[in-house]
Structure formats: structure tokens, C-alpha cells
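#dry-run=false #mode=assembly
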Amino acid sequence: MLKNVSLTQQGAHAGAPPGKRRKTWISRELHHFKNNRELFLLSLPGILYKLIFAYIPMIGLIIAFKNYRYDLGIFGSKWVGLDNFRYLFTTDTAWRITRNTVLYNTAYILVGTSAALLLAILMNEIKAKWSKFYQTALFLPHFLSWVLVGYVAYAFLNHSDGFINRTLESFGLEPVSWYQNAAPWPVILILAQLWKVVGFNTLIYFAGIIGINSEYYEAARIDGATKRQMAFKITIPLMAPIIIIMLILSIGNMFRGDFGLHYFIPNNSGFLYGSTDIIDTYVYRALREVGNVSMSAATGFYQSVVGLVLVLSANAIVRKINPDNSLW
Amino acid sequence: MARKFEFSKLFINLLFTVLSLIVILPFLLVIAVSLTDEKALTQNGYQFIPTSFSLDAYRYLLDAPDILLRAYGVTLTVTVIGSLTGLLLTAMTAYVISRQDYRYNRVTTFYVFFTMLFSGGLVPSYILITQYLHLKDSLWALILPILLSPFNIMVMKGFMSKIPHEIIESAKIDGAREFRIFFRIILPLSTPALATLGLLISFTYWNEWFNAMLYIDDPNKVPLQLLLVRTLNSIEFLTTNSEFTGQLGIDLASFPNSSARMAIAVLAGGPMVVIFPFFQRFFVKGLTVGSLKG
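#status=ok
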């Protein structure tokens, strides 16, 4: 109230000498805003976009606490408290999809990071001309959709004509019903993931290695360091910031699985849900195939909240060890 | 010493050759299957070298090209509109954040970055798009949900914050306003980053299937990737539920078979595989410049 009064006074005495009356917070802010308004306008489309497509859906999370009905809408639907969560956590489903999501992501992070780092270090050892060729080859799957990779997997795993089964048969072995046999899927999925993303991650680390000042290596060479010493004493420590940022991001995504990988490679086969189903595929099926909107929302809510907690803790831990490496 | 050195190089080259083959060979299998005669496929299974070569699958698909052409049209439209709009918005937002002297720089950064950490998830977005924005069966449902990624904004910001501030200062002294500075100076200077991100964004649009699976039912608006999803699913369904097909009176022989299925995959993925090596060098540059050293 008071602020408003002084604001109008400010306006009335526009010609008054400055400093006579202490400027209020609002008028100061308005002044600053005027100076920054063009930059603000430039960012406005982005801000509005994020508002509509990222922030408004956050309000929609209340569906998780309601019994959602399309005809009543978000705000008209009845509150049910924690019923959706209670239902989710009393079945085996919550445990199964949580376990799968976390274990798969841990495996992807460990296998993926070490493989990519190793390949990047090795790539740095060979001639540029050849490394270009290898980069191109390894990078290729990154640009194809999981649907397409699903076709590739199908060509290998298909029961009657697939390459693997025909090869097994030619050695006199029994063919395997891949899409009905849950046991080998952790291995298949980890291999498929590695196959698709290792090239991209290698390139990120490789770009980081190229950026390392070559003087470090020359000095080490003069001191008689071996290649392995250089890798462990120079490359990896200097790459630590990149590795850690990538790790924090992947830990934050620990609760967010790769939908495409887990939907198209197992071909959405019901036999495999035990070992392939992750939170994301479950949420999708609950929404689109089962039509249980509230349950799907509750699972999504659970996923978002735990994901946020994970990334905040990961960052806090890193900041404690070395503030320079943290994300913020 | 020198000899040992050579040996390790040979070993590394060998390793990478093997890895490259592991990546490339599966594609060759898909191509080989699409080029094999259907009878040979059921007899010998999928093989890398076609026992009897046949273009029937492609002839079959190109005989009635409507579906495929329409899917190409949808994907192209979505890719062009999405990439151009997305790139411009990414650059605009990133530029503003990159300006250290902008008063709301930190607030905006947090506002953008937070969406990377926390999201409403699938269901609220689905309800927003279908119930409130009424975008079901609209191409906008393919474009809008992935228009602006916080990650891309951060990469672009990393690049733009390396542009010397003096350039902006001197332009201001010459009387240029912010919009002019952005469009006439910053955008041209950011060409490498724009090229890199533009490519990344257009690849994302080209490969988009998730939103298509959610929002597109209209057969006229099916993009390439959704066509692939449907082909994979429908054949699986029809071949495993033969009594159902019998009831409907569908002749299985008239449906795309193994080779035609793989041919669709080749036709959908082909352009990417052919185009991508030409642009690959930009990525190394763009990644080095953009996200890493900032």
C-alpha cells in the first residue's frame, strides 16, 4: 500500500531532483526493467514456451492425488489422497519397475562411461585420418531412431528366420525364443544401449581430450612417462570435470529410463516385462494401453520427485568434494 | 622402443576396425534382408549375403507409394518447421542468458535449467495437449513438445558467452538496439553453433516417434517413424493371431512380408545414413566449442 503511494508520488514529481525521496523497490525495478526490456523481449518466446509446456504440466501433477476423469477435467475430478500411490506400492509393479530402472541405468552409466573413456583415450593415440573414419562408423547409430534399431534387433532375434537362431541351428543348437525368454534380456539391452550410444560419448570425451594442452604431454614425455601414466595422471584428472558433469546428469536421470530402448528392442513383448519393464514404459502402458490415467500420473510423480532428489544429492556430494566440478 | 610403439598402434587400429564392423554389419543385414527373395528368406533365414537377390520388396512398396510418400511429407514438414523455429528460439533464449550484464540473467537461467531437473511427466503433458490445447492429430503435437530443449540452450549459451563483450558494447555505441545486435551480429557470429545445434534438432525431429505414438491417429498424418512402429506391430500382431486374420478375411500374402518390412526400414533410415557423414565433422567442432570448455 505504502509502496503504491510513493510510486504515484514518484510519477507526479518526475521532474524533481534525484535523491530527494528514496526510490522504492518497485520503481527501481521498473527502471531496471525498462533498461533490460529488449533483452527480456528476446527471451519472452522461450519463457512462454517453457511456461506452457514445462511449468503448467507441473500443476497437472495433482492428478496423481485424484481419480482423474476426462469428462470432469483436472480440477473437477475427485480427490483420493494417496490412494493411487498406495495401490502402486502394494503391487509388485512398483518394486519391479524401480529395480529395473535403477539397475539398468547404473549398468549403462558404468559400462558406457568406462567404454567411452577408454575408446576416447585410444582414439587420441592414432592418426587423425583413421580416427575420423572410426568416429563416423561408431557415431552412426546415434542418428537413427530406436524404432529403426528395433528393426535391426528384430533381424537378429526373430524366432524363425533371425540371424542368431539360424546360426545356432547351423551349429546344431536349439533356437531360442528371444522375445519370450526374459533371462538374457539384461545382457541384450546393455549391449544394444552400448552399441547405440558409445560413439557419441566417445566423441564427447575425445573432444575434451583434444582440448587438453599438449604441453602437459610433452613435459611428461620428457620426464619419461609411459602412455598409461599419461592417461591416468594427465588425461583422466583433466577430464574429471566433464566426466563428473556427465555423471551428475545421468544420476539425475537414474529414475528416467530410455523409453525407446526398453520399448522397441524387446518389441513391447509381455513375456519380457519382468526383466525389461522400466518406469517409463510402465507409465506409457498405464496411460495408453490400460487407460489408468491417475495411476500413470502417480508413477510419473514418483519418478519426477525421486529424480529431483537424486540430482540434488549428487550435486551436493560433488560440491562437497570439489566445488569446481559441481553443476551449480 | 619404436617397434613396440608401432605394435600398439596396430592393435588400436585393429580394435577400432572390429568395433566399426560391429556397428555397421547389423545395418548391412537389414539391407541384405530387404534385397533377398522372400522364399529364400523362409528357407535360409536372414543372411548377410542374399542367396537369391530380389528387388520385389522395393517394387511392392513403390507400387503404391502413397503411404510412404505421405509419411515422408509429414516428417519433412515437421523437421523443417520444428528445426527453424526451435533453433531461433534456442538462440534467442541462450543469447539473453549469456549476457552477463542482463539483470534477469540468473533468474532466466534457473527458470530454463529447472525444467531439466523436474517435470510434470507424461500424463499432465498428455492431458494438456489433448484436452486443453486440442492438438491431437495435429502436426503441432509433433513439433511443439520437443521445440526447446534446456540442454541445447545450455550448449548454445556456452558458445555465445565466448563472444567478446566489446563487440556488443561498440555496436551499442554506434546506436544499435538489442534486436539488431542479436540478428545482425550475434547470429552471424554463432554460425558454427547454429549449424551444430540445427543438425541435432533436425535429427531429433526426423527421428521423432514418441509424440507421434501418443498424439497421431489420423492415417494422413503418420510420420515416417510411426509408420515403422506400426509396420513392426501390425505384422507381429497378424502373424501371431492368425485366427483373427482369418476372421477378418485378410490375406496374409498381400501384407508386407519380411523383406518388405526391412525395405521400409531402409527407406526410412536411408536418408539419415547417407546425409550424416557429411555433417559429422561439424559435431566434433561444435561439441568442442560448445558444451565442454565452458
